[in-house]
Amino acid sequence: MFSSVKEKNSGFNFGLPVLTTKPSSSNGLTPLTAAPTTSVQPAFGTTTLTRDDNSEVTDSSETREPRPQFTFLGGQLKLESPWRNMDWTEEQKTSLMETITSYRRSCEEVPQARVLLLGPVSSGKSSFISSVQSVFNGRVTNRAMVGSFSSGFTKKLQSFNIRGKKGEDHTGLVLCDTMGMSEDGMTGLTLHDILSVVKGHVPEGHKFSPDQPVSASETVGYVKRPSLKDKVHCVAFVVDASKITTYPKGLSTTFKQLRKHISDLGVHQVALLTHVDQVCLQTAKDVTGVYESRTIQDVMGKAAALLGMSTSYIVPVKNYSSELDLDVNTDVLLLSAVDHILQYADLYFQDNAPQNKELKTALDL
Ligand SMILES: Nc1nc2c(ncn2[C@@H]2O[C@H](COP(=O)(O)OP(=O)(O)OP(=O)(O)O)[C@@H](O)[C@H]2O)c(=O)[nH]1
Ligand SMILES: [Mg+2]
After folding, report:
1. Which neighbouring-strand residues pair with 239?
2. What is the reported pTM?
3. Tell me, what CATH number does 204's domain have?
4. Which carries the bigger pLDDT value, residue 244 or residue 361?
5. Max CA distance (Å), the chain
6. Are 248 and 16 in contact (CB under 8 A)?
7. Quick check: 89 and 334 in contact, CB under 8 A?
8. How many domains in the chain?
9. Is the Cβ–Cβ distance between 90 and 104 less than 8 Å?
C-alpha cells in the first residue's frame, strides 16, 4: 500500500523538470516546427527536426514560426504497403459500431467496462472521449470539455457512458477522464492518486489536487471497499504524436513506473497515439494513409519506447478538433481504437470475474 504523503515525496509524484514550450496556437494546433525552449534534454536523442531532404532545421526563426507545419516528414513518406490492414468503408464503420454497441463483459456482475484515460496534459484524452461520443451521436459534439490551456484543463474524475446510436442503450463501455499527468511535477496527477482511481477508491467527480492526496479520511465519498464494478478494468495511455520527441526525459520513467504498478493490479494497458494529423501532412489530408506513413510508423516506435510497451498495444488516432462534420475514415480509426481497448478490458474480466476465478482455481488445483 502507498501512504499518501510519503508516496508524494518518494519520487512518484512525477517530479519532472520544467519544460517551457511555446504555447499552442489559438486553434489548439501545436506547431510541429516549434522547437521548445527547454531546460531539460529531450527524451530522445533524435529531436532534431529535418526537412523532406533530411537537412536539419537550425534557423531559430524557422524553429519558432508555426509555419510550415510538416517539416519533419521523412524523404520517403509513403510505405509500399500499409503495415496494418484496415477496411475504410461505411460498412466497416457500421460493423465496428455494432460490435461496440453489443459488447458484453464476460462477467455478469459488472454492467460496464471502465476504461481510464491517462496521459500528459493536452494529449487529447477528453478529445478522444468527445470524438467517440460524436461518432455514436452522428455529429461532432464536445461533451467531454476539451481544453486548450497548457496548464491542463480537466481537473476531475469524470466517467462517460458511451451511448449507442441515437435512441439505443448505453454500450458496455465507460470512458473515465482524468486530470493530465504533469510534466513539471507540480500540478498533475500523482502516482498515488492514479492508483487510487484504478483500485476504485475515488468517487465520481472528485477534484484532484496534488496538495491533497486521495485518502480514506480526507476524501469525501472515498470508496473504502470497491467492488469489481468500481475498479478500472483497462488503462489507455494517451500521448501526442507531435510531442513525442519533446516530452521531458522523466516522462518515460514515470510511464514505466506506472505500468509496473498498474500491471501488478492485473489491469491491462493499451495506448492511443493522438494528433497523427499533425505529424504527417498526407494523413491530415486523408486519414486512410495512416498505416502507409513512414513518419507515423517512426513516431509509433518512439511512442513504444516512451511508454515501454510494444507497438502492438498502440493505435494511432485522429481526434475531432476543429472539424464540424464527421468523416467516415476518421470514424473507422476512432472505432478501431475503441475495439482495441475493449479487447484488453475483456482480458481483465476473463481473469477476475468470480466465476472465472473459481474455474481458474479449480484448474490450478
Ligand atoms: N489536430 C489535432 N488536435 C487534437 C487532437 N486531439 C486533441 N487535439 C487538440 O489538443 C488540445 C488538447 O486536447 P484535450 O482533449 O483537451 O487534451 P486533454 O488530454 O484532455 O488535456 P487535459 O485535460 O488538460 O489534461 C485541444 O485543443 C484539442 O482540440 C488530434 O488528434 N488532432
Ligand atoms: Mg481533458
Report:
1. 273
2. 0.79
3. 3.40.50.300
4. 244
5. 68
6. yes
7. no
8. 1
9. no
